[in-house]
Amino acid sequence: MKSFFKIFFASLLALIVFSILGVMVLIGFAASASSSDKPVIGSDAVLVLDLSKPFKERVQENPFASLTTDGDFETPSLFDMVRLIEHAKQDANVKGIYILASDNANGFGASEEIRKALLDFRKSKKFVVAYGETISQKGYAIASVAQKIFVHPQGGLEWAGFSSNLVFLKGMLDKLEIKPQIIYAGKFKSATEPLRETQMTDANRLQTSVWLGDLYNQFLYQTAAARNLDTAQIRALAVEGKIQTAADAVKYNLIDGLKYDDQIKNEITGRLNLPVNSKINFVYFGEYAKSVTLNESSASEKIAIIYASGDIVGGTGTDEQVASDDYKELIRKARLDKSVKAIVLRVNSPGGSALASDVIWREVSLAKKEKPVVVSMGDVAASGGYYIACNANKVFANASTITGSIGVFSIFPNIESFLKNKIGITTDRVKTGPYADMGSMDRALTEPEKRFLQASTDSIYNTFKTRVSEGRKKDMVYVDSIAQGRVWTGTRGMSVGLVDEIGTLSDAIKAAAAMAKVKSYKLKEYPEKKNILEQLFNNYKRTVSIQLMETELGAEQLLMMQQVKKVKAMVGVPQAKLPYTVTVH
C-alpha cells in the first residue's frame, strides 16, 4: 500500500507539473499568436488568389495555421477577400493578381462578389493573370475577368454547360421496407423528393431548368463581355462539343495561350519588368491579410454586420449553424447598442427549423422598429433563410443567389417493417391515449394523425406566407403564386418582388449607412471572434475530430455521414428548408 501511494502521488505531481507547463506554453503561444507584428510583403508583390480555397462568410482565426509545414496563413473570409482586393488596388507595393483557376471551391454568389472586386481592381491598370493546368467552368467564371488566361499545353478548359444532379433513395428505402411518411406544403417543395420519388417531378424539373438556365446564361454573358465574343457562339461551342483540347480553347478565343509553369512565371516577370527567371514576390491573400489593417475607421457610429451562415436550428449551435438562441441574442445586442446605427444581416443559409426561423424573424422585426435592417444574400438564402430575411427594410441579393423556396415539410420515418423483416426486431407499447406515441418510428401514422400533421404543416406554411406578405408588402394571393416552395435566382427573385436590388455585401452596407444617414462609421461584425485560448481549444478539437473521422471513413463517407446526421436532425421537426443541396457541375 505504501508503494501504491508513493507511485500515485508521484504520478499526480507529474500530471500537475505537466498541466502547468502546458498552460504556460499555451499562454506563450497565445501571446505570440496575438502579437501585433505584421509581415512585410515587400515591393513588386503579386497577390495569389487560389480559387481552390473556400472563402467562408465568417472565419474564426486558426492559431495553428501559421505553424503548418507549408507556412500557409488562414484563408480570409469572403468579405475580407473583397476588402483586401479593394485595398490592393491602392497599394503601391502590389503590382498585380495571379489567379490559380484550376478549380473553384466557392459558390456562385461568392464567385460573383470576388469577380466584381477583381473587375474594380483592374481599373487601377494593374495586371490580372489567370492560370490552371486545367480550368473548370466554375474556375473560369472568375478567371474570365483576367487580361490574360493561360492553361497547360496538355491541360484544357472545361466547356460543356451546366448540370445539376439529384440522387433518389426511394428504391433503396423500398428494398429496406422503410416508409419515410412525408408531410409537405407547396407543390415545388421538393426537399423530400429523393425519399418519395425515383426521378424529378415535373414541378421540380421546371424550377431546376429555370434557375440552372439563369446561372448558365449569366456565365455566358459574363464570358462574352470579358472575351468580346457572342453569347450564341460560345453556347454553341458547348452544345456541339467543340472544346476538347487546350488548343481548341485558344482557337475559339476562350483563353490566350498555352504555357508551362516556368513560362507563366516569365509572363509575370515581364509584366514586372524583371529579368527572365527572376524570383517573383508572390504573396498569398492570407499573408496579405496579416500585413494590412481593414476597417480602420475611428468613428464612434457603427454598422453591425451579422453573419447568418449555415443550417437554421433551434437552441444553441456550432460555428457552422444559425442557432435561434444565439442569433436572437446577437440581433438583440445590435438593436440595443445605441452606437449601432444600422444592421446588415448577411444570410447564407438553406434554412432549417421553421420554429427557429420564426424566433429569429421576431428579433429582426423588433430591430427594424429601432434602426434600418438591410439583408445581403450570399450563395443561398432560401426557405428559412428567406424567412429570416423577408421583413428587412431592404433586401440585396447577388444575381446568382438561390432564394425563395417558401414552403414547409416534415418527415416521420416508419421503420417497423425494416425492424421486423430485415433484422427480426419487434416492438410493443402501453399508452394512455391514442396519440401518445404519435410520430414513433416503429409504426405507421394513422389517418387522423396524418390529418393533424398536415393541418400543422399547412398552418406553418400560411404563417410563412403571411410573414412574406407583410414584409414585402405583397398580397397573400400573389405571395402564394410565387411561393409553393419554388426556388428562384436572385435576378428572378427581384423580378417577382422577393428581392429589392442586385448587389454585394458592400452595396448592402452602403445602403444601410445611407438609410441611417451616417457618413462616417466603422463596421462591427457578429458573431464576434473568440479569444485566442478559445480558438486554440476549439480549433484543435474540431480539426482533430474531423481528421480522425476522415482518416477512418474516407472523405466521401464522411460527407455522407454528415448528410445523414442532418437528415436525422430534421425528423419530426417542421422544416423550412431548401429542396436539396444545390450542386452544379
Description of the molecule:
With 585 residues, the protein is of the alpha/beta class. Helix content is 46%, strand content 18%. It contains 21 helices and 20 strands. The strands form five sheets. Strands 8, 11, 13, 14, 15, 17, 18 and 19 form an eight-stranded mixed sheet that branches. Strands 6-4-3-2-1-7 form a six-stranded parallel sheet, with helices on both faces. Strands 5-16 form a two-stranded antiparallel ribbon. α3 (108-122) packs parallel to α4 (137-143), α12 packs parallel to α13 (354-370) and α20 (532-553) crosses α21. The radius of gyration is 27 Å and the shape is globular. The model is unreliable at 66-71 (pLDDT under 50).
